[in-house]
Amino acid sequence: MNLLTKYKSVRLASEQMVEPLHIEDYVPQAATFASPPKWNLGHTTWFFEEFILKPHSQDYKVFDESYSFLFNSYYNTVGERVTRANRGSLSRPLVSEVMGYRKHVDKAIQQFLQNSTLTKDIEDIFIVGINHEQQHQELFFTDLKYNFSVNPTFPAYNNKAFCEDEESETMAWLAIEKGIYDIGHQGDGFCYDNELGAHQVLLQDFEISNKLITNGEYLEFLKDGGYNKFEFWHDEALFWLKDKNISHPMYWLQKDGKWFQYTLAGLRLLQDKHILTHLSYYEAAAFAQWKGHRLPTEFEWEAACHKFDWGKRWEWTESAYSPYPNYKKPNGAIGEYNGKFMVNQKVLRGGSVVTPQGHSRKTYRNFFHPHIAYQFNGIRLVK
User: What whole-number distance in Å separates Cα of residue 44 and Cα of residue 17?
Assistant: First the structure.
């Protein structure tokens, strides 16, 4: 698939995702971390305008000068921007104007690709932009679900709940022998800069579960009073539980003695065999402690991932998000993509049911703060 075909395919996918929405769904922002669909559509377009068209297309005419301020996310190199918490306050520009912005940039990109000889640097930024939009396609579902979830009518996006059975009927421990293992991206395929710096690590013998934890297994922890037993929780997590009044996973709701789960298909009865999802690192680590086990490090996960069916849920690890040996942050604004976030966050590995096909790989390093639970994540245990 050539670059223009890939670009068109990814851009079309974003617009297909918003087709089930009503105009009122495009703007609300229920939390700082959950951007509105309209802003995501504008931001992913801004990326190509800002990093491809403005610096490299001599004939390009900016669609609207104010959009650089409205749709910049966190790039200090580029300039000022709307405060993240205020993205949902942008009733203007209109949705129709944002869609016009997308068409304007898409047309200019097509002309640029057809009429220009790309340097490797420009091509690399293009590929980052395509993967960046795929990241926001994943965020579309996670953000929309949270924004919908605060509505007491439990609205449905469509009839797909993104709730699946764990296919492994019985749990088995997969043995990984002590040894030196290669970690990090190697080869010519695309990766983010945080995957670079391939190196070797020494791992001790360990065993890793062939399956993810299910709702039913986590419900046992809940029924055993797990949220009230301090011995399973990090001290910081205990403060979080009390401060936020947390007593069960995000999107779980108890009604008439039964547990329900909010999904993108609306409120549904909790199914024991479905894969557990939407929980924080704090909860994942506490559950692992309760079971007498632990979470894998990201290096253990990568060394073992060929032994299990990964990619159903982003999987929490015990590893802090930090640079690999010899990591070099790229120059300019692209250098702000990953490196500046390497503090106070935990690594997740794998992918999920809302990750675009082909976007993830065994070396992909996702990262979130320990209290974040709105991603389609899960738990895999190690002993």
Answer: 14
Q: What is the DSSP string of 264-332?
A: TTEEEE--TTBBP-S--HHHHHHHHHHTT-BPPPHHHHHHHGGGS---SSEEEEEEE--PPTT--PPSS
Question: 368 is in which domain, residue-wise?
Answer: 173-378
Cα separation, 321 vs 299, in Å, equals: 12
Question: Is residue 193 a contact partner of residue 327, using CB atoms and an 8 Å limit?
Answer: yes
* Residues 301-356 pLDDT 10s: 999 999 999 999 999 999 999 999 989 888 887 887 888 999 999 999 999 999 99
Give pLDDT, residue 326: 87
CA 210, CA 308: separation in Å to the nearest integer?
Answer: 5
Give burial (CB, 10 Å; 0-12/13-18/19+) of 169: exposed
Reported pTM: 0.96
On whether the CB atoms of residues 322 and 345 are closer than 8 A, the answer is no
Looking up residue 115, the CATH number of its domain turns out to be 1.20.120
Neighbours of 24 (CB within 10 A): 7
Residue 14 — very low, low, confident or very high, per pLDDT cuts 50/70/90?
very high
Extract the tokens encoding 272. 């024991």
> 137, 130 in Cβ contact below 8 A?
no
Cα dihedral value 48, 49, 53, 55, nearest 10: -100
Do residue 180 and residue 144 come from a single domain?
no
194 within a domain of the structure (yes/no): yes
Q: How far is CA 293 from CA 280, 288, 305, in A?
A: 17, 5, 18
Q: Is residue 164 part of a domain?
A: no
Cα distance from N-terminal residue to C-terminal residue, the chain = 43
Gap between the Cα atoms of 158 and 259, Å rounded: 22
